[in-house]
Each structure stands twice: as structure tokens, then as C-alpha cells.
Design a protein that fits this description.
globular, 15% helix, 61 residues, 5-stranded antiparallel β-sheet, 5 strands
């Protein structure tokens, strides 16, 4: 996923389904310098982590 789309998802009022290597996640923020995002799995909301943007994909239409 590119950083512009990730920021659009963060700014959206709608819940947009995103997965990181098949795991549903919530994107909290992005770091364009390192091309990473701060996310947490939806089933472990206290497990915040930095992941590469390339591993993020929208799930669904």
C-alpha cells in the first residue's frame, strides 16, 4: 500500500478493512521516511507494532 492511501484510510470516517499479511489490523499512523506504519491487530489492540507499508492491503472492494 502506498503512504497516500494509508493516510486516506486513517483520515476516513468509515471503517476500511486492512490486513497485514492476512491479519486484520487498524492503522494508527504512518512514517513516510521509513515507509512504515504503526498498526495493531484487531484481536490484540494492545499489541502495537511497526510494519512495512508494502505488507498492508485493503480487504474487500
Amino acid at each position: 500500500m502506498d503512504s497516500n492511501r494509508a493516510q486516506e484510510i486513517i483520515d476516513s470516517f468509515a471503517m476500511i478493512n486492512v490486513k497485514y499479511h492476512g491479519i486484520p489490523v487498524y492503522i494508527q499512523g504512518i512514517n513516510e521516511d521509513s515507509e512504515t506504519a504503526t498498526v495493531f491487530p484487531l484481536d490484540e489492540m494492545d499489541h502495537e507494532q511497526q510494519v512495512d507499508l508494502e505488507g498492508l492491503f485493503e480487504d474487500g472492494p
